[in-house]
Request: fold
Amino acid sequence: MRKTILAGISLLLISILILPACSSAVETIPSDVDEAVQAGVAATLTKEAWLGGVESARKTAIASESLSPTEDDDGEVSSLILPTFTPQPSLTPTLKPVLEHFQVPGKPKEKIDTYLIDFNSIDYAGDGFTYGDQFKSNIYERPFTSGEMIYRGEIDIIRVNLKSGTPWTYVSIFLAEKLPETGEMKYGIELDLDENGRGDYLIQCGLPLSSDWGVEGVQVYTDTNGDVGGKFPMSMDTPDLELNGYEVLVFDAGDGNDPDLAWARRHPNEPNSLQFAFKTDLTGPTGYMWSAWADAGLRAPDYMDYNDHFTAETAGSPYPGSPLYPLKAVYLVDSTCRSYYGFTPSGDEPGLCP
Reply:
């Protein structure tokens, strides 16, 4: 088959080469210059058409050879070989401007201004229950999975230190067990600037991957319509799905009015700790209340406070012997009571630590 096709191409080429010679023999000589030019143009166009015909015949022969069965060395006909085409995606890269930082946190001083101690559930980890949970008061001790009650020590907060200065406020969260290499948990600091029980800012980050300060995964939310905490802040209300909690993201991994507003990192010396740094200007000069969060369950700023979106029955309980045991809708979350900084509390502040 291949030899037949090649022979056909050869005969076609010979015919093409002979035709111009025969044609030129019968052409008349132009009578003037204009006729000579026209004849030359016609001859050129005719030649291009012939060459086009040659190329078309060559492609047809190649295509026929590709689509026809082929014989191997033993004379057997092999299967049909079809040409393949792999489309290449059209890539339009999205270029994000390089973030320029003007201020980077340093090393916090060892002397702290205030701290929190939280219930440690590791002693009950093997039994699948714990104490210290106060669901009705928006203080959670639930470092367990839903249903099976598997303990997760990297969600169990045991201590939090706060050091305020200029320009940075540093917060160190210590956990019952060391930070894992990977995970989808969120850690956070909640700030109540007017001490009424409603959080005003939530600073949170994903699992830090480095002991160097970075803004990757760091977010700052605020509540502009004042519905965090529902009707009675820190207390359990009838579930209201219209509450939208922290609904405005003012800082997202450096995007915002201040690209240096908040940072996070793994603690360089403590494998069970991470650190936040945020601009002290965020809180203002009048003092505030604050608490810490670790959340690998709902991770929903727009649902805060959780006890305004779920009943105690749907949330479940970590207490042994409770009719609400085990954990259900609200799980893998630990939060602290609230400490204070920059003012003297009266003792009636919602959520205030004993």
Summary: The two ends are 96 Å apart (CA to CA). The chain has two domains: 2-67, 114-341.
